[in-house]
Amino acid sequence: MLISKYSEPEFDPYGDARQTETDDGWRAPLATSKLSAVLSLPGSKSLTNRELVLAALADSPSTLHAPLWSRDSELMVEGLRALGTGFDRVPGSGEFGDDLRVTPADELLGSTTIDCGLAGTVMRFLPPVAALALGPTTFDGDEYARRRPMAGVIHGLQALGVDLDDDRRGTLPFTVHGTGSVAGGELEIDASASSQFVSALLLSAARFERGLDLRHSGERLPSLPHIEMTIATLAARGVAVDNPETGRWVVAPGPIRGIDVDIEPDLSNAAPFLVAALVAGGSVTIAGWPAETTQVGAQLIDLLPQFGARVVRDGDRLTVHSPESATAEARGIRGVDLDLSEAGELVPNLVALAAFAEGPSTITGIGHIRHHETDRLAALATELNGLGGRVTELEDGLRIEPAPLHGGAWRAYADHRMATTGAIVGLAVPGVVVDDIASTGKTLPQFTALWEQLLA
Ligand SMILES: O=C(O)C1=C[C@@H](OP(=O)(O)O)[C@@H](O)[C@H](O)C1
Ligand SMILES: C=C(OP(=O)(O)O)C(=O)O
Fold it and tell me: Could you tell me which residues belong to the region Disordered (predicted)?
């Protein structure tokens, strides 16, 4: 359990979830009538953690309005605080917690240890920051975090001349021996395993003495919208990223501006609620949907209609209605054939939807999600098949065939999106028990409370 170092009220990333857990797990509630819910969601993990890093590297203080307060953002704050960054909670108008004032350190200082938990953004985005700090910083995390790929960041920093001691394992734990500056310059990395390698280096690049001329050399580059998000957050702080050709990014050295920034609601965390409209029937509305965004969750607007949903936007409200072809006997969900290489983090929830479709689905381009919080391809196949599903693992994806599901245990593997996927299945299948619903605290500590609101 993570103890917040903030002043009162203490922040508990597992608060709502813990209250609803029993000894054997969380009994996923069954939907007993059609949904008609309007929900608001807390801030985006990807935006919050980028803005925290950039605020810490900026030349003046920043304020984050309506940031995410969750395990991943807490770990990012604690990591940056350990390097000397100042944080103050300030009352804000957000529904889900205070605003956050970030005061950059005069000089970043190492001689510390950073706990990355299971957060990809923390383990990838902070080592370049630690390289800019004076003194050694040791990185470690949860047990499974030691299996998540880090090579692009580790070898990338080493190639830039940073003294990084990783016992040649290419994973956590490792120590960055920061000297207060990074030379920067030309660099080639393979980011096939995670777009976060590219984002990590770009976020700190303007603070390198020669900036960065970064090339990606691998066969594929997953999660491109997340790199676009990195570029957009840098641009808002006066850092231009030149993209002269596919797979190459150039950043000139220069200041990163302190700014006040509104954090958008997390659109990937909208996925379980929107998917629920198709599984349980009825409609689900998310309030506060941004007019424009770089979040990959926005792709749900085009993805859900492929399963048969009707999606309506009305100002800042996005509503998903169950398929018009739905009847009292059938949900009317269509099977799909999708390449989700850009939207890997949406896969678990969409696979649950495919499990209720009338025809088979194939989802490809997602080999990299074997390196997310768990091997998501194996986890999804194992858990759905354990409930009677017919899911086959492909080299870079999954094939899902229609099959009647029955209740039983659903393992979350400490993965927030596996936990929410179990909740979706449990909407329509009686007796699904999720072993670790508290893992939703990684990015959405309010998950179980919002799920109750969804079903109210
Ligand atoms: O930069 C980010 O905020 C993220 C990038 C993606 O990582 P991968 O490229 O490893 O899939 C995504 O899946 C993850 O949830 C968040
Ligand atoms: C892959 C994910 O997280 P992380 O930021 O830890 O990579 C995710 O949230 O789906």
Answer: 1-25
Report pLDDT for 4. 35
Catalytic residues: 345
Alpha carbons 322 and 309: distance in angstroms, whole number: 5
- Give the separation between CA 262 and CA 293, rounded to whole angstroms: 12
pLDDT at position 10: 41
User: Could you tell me which residues are annotated as the binding site for phosphoenolpyruvate?
Assistant: 45, 120, 148, 196, 376, 417, 442
Element (DSSP H or E) covering residue 27:
strand 26-27
Q: Walk me through the domains of the chain, giving residue ranges and CATH numbers.
A: 15-41+266-455 (3.65.10.10), 45-251+258-262 (3.65.10.10)
User: At residue 15, does pLDDT exceed 70?
Assistant: no
**Given a cut of 50, is residue 108 above it in pLDDT?**
yes
Residue 320 CB neighbour total at 10 angstroms: 26
The tens digit of pLDDT for each residue in 318-352 reads: 999 999 999 988 999 999 999 999 999 999 999 99
- The finding on whether 345 has its CB within 6 A of some atom of ligand 1 is yes
- 3-state DSSP assignment of residue 86: strand
Helix (H, G, I), strand (E, B) or coil at 250: strand
Owner of token pair 């770990």: 75
The number of the ligand nearest the C-alpha atom of 442 reads 2
**Given pLDDT bands bounded at 50, 70 and 90, which one contains residue 93?**
confident
Ligand 1 pocket: which of 44, 45, 46, 51 to mutate (most atoms <8 Å of CB)? 46
Q: Is the whole-model pTM more than 0.90?
A: yes
Residue 2 carries which DSSP code?
A: P
Q: Looking at residue 156, what DSSP letter applies?
A: H
Which residues sit with their C-beta closer than 6 Å to ligand 2?
A: 119-121, 345, 372-373, 417, 443
Distance 72 CA to ligand 2 centre (A): 9
pLDDT tens, position by position, 251-265: 999 999 999 999 999
